[in-house]
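Hey Z.,

So I finally got round to the acetoacetyl-coenzyme A thing we talked about over coffee. Here's the setup:
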Amino acid sequence: MSVVLLERRGPVAIVTINRPKALNALSPEVMVRLGEVIAEVEADRSLRVMILTGAGGKAFVAGADIAEMRGFDILAAERFAEEGQRVLSRMEGLSIPTIAAVSGFALGGGCELAMACDIVLAGPRARFGQPEVKLGVIPGFGGTQRLVRRVGQARALDLVLTGRMVGADEAVSMGIASRKVGEDVLAEALAVADEIRSAGGVAVSFAKRAVQDHADGDLKAGLAAERHLFALCFASEEQAEGMSAFLEKRPAAFAGAPDQG
Ligand code: CAA
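And the result:
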């Protein structure tokens, strides 16, 4: 059985980190396979949403694999972090929305993996944290960078410097998780995926691009990009259908919406 599984449920890709005995720890093998799976998702134009989850229910991902990292020298560590950052950035850059379905531990590289997803759903037993300093290292897959952008410097430093874990409620209040959901986090993620699919696919990908490409940039450049993408929507059939459907008081029939398979 592969260490990363890709299942297609119609236009929804479910990517599962599959090392439950090691709490889905990210070994170099997992990162290579995850990179391949992300490339497959990227190439498959029939996909509309990607869900990322962990096997076994106890953990989303409990971090990079400590047993594998223990023997790293400087060069091996640099390569591992480089590969991890490359894979996470590629996933973050997918044109389709990504949802992290977090049940149990999302620690270190696992928290970083979730932070590279667009929407993070936290089950009641979710535990997030960046415990790297307790191992004598610092986060290497973006934990000192994406976390700050998501939750602000004060909250990110609180987590990164103490290594403490936070539960679902605190994760939502900090902005690490988008929402707290019920025990069956995958079912909740599939429901969110359906909600996204019932909207216009082009609009969804433009909205993601507008937010993501300019999250770090200045407001002026971001507003310019937003208005260009807004205008571009008017070249799509989706805009005609979406607005006509509203005015005709009927549901919009967008390609790939759940009721149309
Ligand atoms: N790497 C390798 N193996 C891991 C692991 C990890 N990150 N996390 C858990 N495991 C393994 C354990 O070694 C154990 O294996 P054995 O059964 O063979 O002994 C198995 O998974 C179950 O774990 P525990 O027995 O420890 O389970 P627990 O319920 O007592 O504790 C836990 C759960 C609190 C998550 C604990 O496992 C833990 O603290 N894990 C490490 C978390 C961590 O420090 N993550 C950061 C890694 S560094 C990093 O990620 C760097 C980066 O940014 C890239």
